[in-house]
Amino acid sequence: MTRFLLRNAVWIVLLFTTIAFVAVEPRLLSVRIFINVLEHSSILGILVIGMIFCLLAGRFDLSSESTLGFTALVGAWMVSTNPFFGSGWQLPPALVIVLMLGMGAGVGCLNSFFIIKLRVNAFIVTLAMLLALRGFTYVFTNANTMYDLPPSFAALGGYSIGGLLPISVILFLSLFVVSQFVLSYTTFGRDLYAIGGNREAAFAAGIRVDRRTLTAFVLSGMLGALAAWVLAGRLQAVTINLGQGMVFEVFAAAVIGGVSLAGGKGTMMGPLGGVLLLGVITTGLSVMPISSFWVDAVRGVLILAAVVLWRVTEIFEERWRTGTP
Amino acid sequence: MADRHTMTPAADADGALLRVRGLSKRFDHVVALDGVSFEAHGNEVLGLVGDNGAGKSTLIKLVSGVHRPNAGEIVFADREVAFATPRDSRERGIEVIYQDMALVDELEVWENVFLGRLLRTRVKTIDRRRMIAEAAELLESLGLGSLSPTAQVGYLSGGQKKAVAISRALYWDARLIFMDEPTAALAVVEIGKVLELIGRLRETGVAVVFVSHNLQEIFSTADRIMVLHRGQLAGIRQTGETDQDEIIKLMMGVR
Amino acid sequence: MQAGKILKHAAIAAVLALGIAVGGQSANADGYKVIYIAPQLNNAADIVIARNWQDVSESLGMDAVIKNAEISAKREADEWATAIALGYDAIVGGPVDSLAATISVKKANEAGIPVFMLGRTSAGGKVELIARADNISLGTIAAEELVRRIEEQRGEIAGKVLELHGPMDQVNARQRSEAIQAVLAKHPKIELIRKLQHWTPEEFFDITKSVASANELVGITMGSDVIPGVDAALDSLGQLKKIGEPGHIVVTGIDADPRILDLIGNDLWDASALQDMVGYGTILAHYIKHYLDGSFKITAAGPIDNPGAPYHGIEARWSEATEGWQIETPSRPVDKSNYTDPTLWGNAIKKYQ
Ligand SMILES: Nc1ncnc2c1ncn2[C@@H]1O[C@H](COP(=O)(O)OP(=O)(O)OP(=O)(O)O)[C@@H](O)[C@H]1O
Ligand SMILES: [Mg+2]
């Protein structure tokens, strides 16, 4: 029981944070706001899933936010019906979506080519990729905002069932369930833990380390593209700075959710709690009548507190396990 | 495919399961292995000895596909092989208990036992329940019934970890098993168990290559003893036709 | 779009994105070498400011180079240091961080290179001329248009208004926001909900959606409408109604982004206070040329007197902090009556496509 509580500390923190916010601002207690939190969390959540695949394998993917920005912009550019700012091609949305996912996969392949074949540090590779993709976005768009997206393209991000429940929320929650299943019940998932835990042992035991790592990066890239599609539809427009700076929240959610940055340790469900916690903090702060001057500070402090709290529960778990007071 | 219940380990017609010719390996300027040739047979324990850094582990890793040799040929079960990865050698029936790259601390015992070859259900999900049960059975048969298959490996003692590594090699009915210092860091009773196990493996027809720094262990288990000195083969002797003094001299490079 | 155009885009973009100086190889062999260190080039407005300034400068025979500080004060300081070392005839800034940039400006002063500011300014150092939009005017017009249209829509000036304002350490964001607050404070029945954003569409969307979910809004205004998200958020709540329809939430912005012009055309956006970046970039380019030629310098406060120059008649004011002159081009409202005006930057930018 103690162990269960400690392992799921992020959910308990989420519960108490929510209660605290609602106590201060009762208007937060509404279905609408609840759904806003989920909707806000969906983009971050999709990126976090990709990051966790890489983190479990003992690698980083810093490029997923720019994969998001790049594929969103290029996709919107290809599909836009605007006579001035689009490509003018007005490609069919279904084709564009396939192309976007393909580009995401391509970025993942490139990342893993440099990391696996050329053995460049993952941090450097994906950081360079982040910068390169940001640069390339100019090529396609002249730094313009892309808009006039066809409704069918925008549906995934923009449509809500009954005008209330966005399909992006259903998508993101199902992705978490599916990916948790992948981690727990497929050889791919289990192999990631082995690779992140001890790459040499995994290799010696016959795990195809390179192939698994490649798959993790490709998944991360494709999830970046999927998030791009959702976000483009939601905003009905794409700017060149889309997704910029999200990598910080992606890491924060993963760490709060108990994923080890050293690899081999973590689940999907913990970070889901982390994602929702960040969502509650962001949404809560935007509804609460708190002075604008304080928003950034409060946000930063709350995130820091969550990370520290995670570490504290880890220490407690260790103590509990070893019986040391 | 080395499936546990289909493969019957058997020695080849002429007796040599593994034939190695002129195997060499360089790491930058260090010559770890220099033109080593030997044979390993089914129904036989080959003791492998040599000083620290003599090239014993390197030899094993070259055969199992962890490293690629710079020169030399490896014939396994009458076919020339060049394993690109340990996965390939495992598929052909070669298991290795590595000295230094064996286990994943974050994972539980059962998963380490089945590492790289997780059992799957009909719908291709991993068969956790079956693997836990089989791991328990395996540990029991090795006299390690007290070790829970769901214990996290990182928290096990050095000897227990060794036992897990041994279990993995044993689960798959291999034709050739390399044991790189399986008795190091073990208590006397445990060492006895491992030596006994090696004896039993020989009876089932497996070829065992056994590395140890303890010559007594080598002499009590090995049929033949192979000595490496600074990457070169110093000699191979029938256990009955040699003594510790000769082996030590070979190890020290004294002729 | 044909291949040639894509190539052209690629070339321009590569130059902008990578910040490669092309001025050195330009045909203006004996022209002045001038450089604009842009705070960022990641939206249409910043691109228009930079490109228009560059076009006009080159048409006046100067070598005009653009560098991108990518919203990094550190990067900006490096670019300034390089520009000083290369000995440009004039440096034009538009600081990411007004305080940090002051140090760079002082270094340029020491090196004897005249400094000008485009769009934004440093907090100190000696700056010959600041040319920018009048932020007070921008904020005032955005708020006045909002109030006027709320009255038209609702019959009274009352209800909750959301203001999406930028970080208060940015001079432009603060001045615009203060002007908006000053106007709205005159209407006691207006309840102002101020929310901080950092110019990202995700924030514009999320904040608008959250606030509009928890409150019944009558109006929304913002520090810049270059960033999308507000209309999409209202749309997703089923609250994006045409002007005049019951339940329409009045929306006014600042800058008049091209996308906003289209929304205005579709009656989905009420008005925007124009930031005339084409205007002040043109003015600055001409002034720099005259300044370097020694043919004209501002010497007194009040309307500038240099007939024929595009800055003729514009009010010059002394800026204490930057020990130099500044001119602020006034804003004007853009709405359904004038959104197709080709001199609006949102329409002018189409020629760069
Ligand atoms: N991956 C490697 N990279 C570089 N040098 C290596 C590598 N592996 C082994 N060596 C070197 O090769 C030589 C042989 O090492 P090896 O591990 O095979 O010795 P060993 O006989 O197993 O020794 P020990 O009894 O200490 O385990 C040593 O000099 C070692 O430093
Ligand atoms: Mg060794």
- Alpha carbon gyration radius of chain A: 20 Å
- Top-tier CATH class of chain A: Mainly Alpha
Query: pLDDT average of chain B, as an integer?
Result: 89
Largest sheet of chain A: 2 strands, antiparallel
Q: What letter string, H or E per element, gives the SSE order of chain B?
A: EEEHEEHEHHHEHEHEEH
Class by alpha and beta content of chain A: mainly alpha
Distance between the ends of chain B? 44 Å
The dominant shape of chain B is globular
Count of alpha/pi helices of chain B? 8
Q: Assign the CATH topology of chain A.
A: ABC transporter involved in vitamin B12 uptake, BtuC
Helix share bin of chain A: over 70%
Shape of chain A: globular
Question: Would you give an account of this structure?
Answer:
The complex is a heterotrimer of chains A (325), B (255) and C (353). By secondary structure, chain A is an all-alpha fold. Chain A has helices at 2-7, 9-24, 31-56, 64-79, 93-117, 122-141, 151-158, 167-185, 187-197, 199-204, 209-235, 246-256, 269-287, 292-322; strands spanning 146-147, 160-161, 165-166, 237-238. Chain A is built from 14 helices and four strands. In chain A, strands 1-4 form a two-stranded antiparallel sheet. In chain A, strands 2-3 form a two-stranded antiparallel sheet. The relative contact order of chain A is 0.19. The termini of chain B are far apart. Chain B has helices spanning 56-64, 86-91, 109-113, 128-141, 158-171, 188-203, 215-221, 244-252, and strands at residues 16-27, 30-41, 44-50, 71-76, 79-81, 94-97, 176-180, 207-211, 224-229, 232-238. Chain B is α/β, with parallel strands linked by helices. Residues 1-13 of chain B have low confidence and may be disordered. With 353 residues, chain C is α/β, with parallel strands linked by helices. Chain C has two domains: 2-125 and 277-330, Rossmann fold (3-Layer(aba) Sandwich), CATH 3.40.50.2300; 135-274, Rossmann fold, CATH 3.40.50.2300. Helix content of chain C is 41%, strand content 20%. Chain C contains eleven helices and 14 strands. In chain C, the strands form two sheets. An eight-stranded mixed sheet of chain C has the order 2-1-3-4-5-13-12-11, sandwiched between helices. A six-stranded mixed sheet of chain C has the order 7-6-8-9-10-14, with helices on both faces. In chain C, strand 9, helix 9 and strand 10 (271-274) form a beta-alpha-beta unit. In chain C, helix 2 (44-59) packs parallel to helix 10. Chain C starts with a helix and ends in a 5-residue tail after the last helix. Mean pLDDT of chain C is 89; it is low at 1-5 and 10-29. Chains A and C meet through helix 3, helix 6, helix 11, strand 4 and helix 13 of A and helix 1, helix 2, strand 7, helix 7 and helix 8 of C. Magnesium ion binds next to helix 1 of chain B.
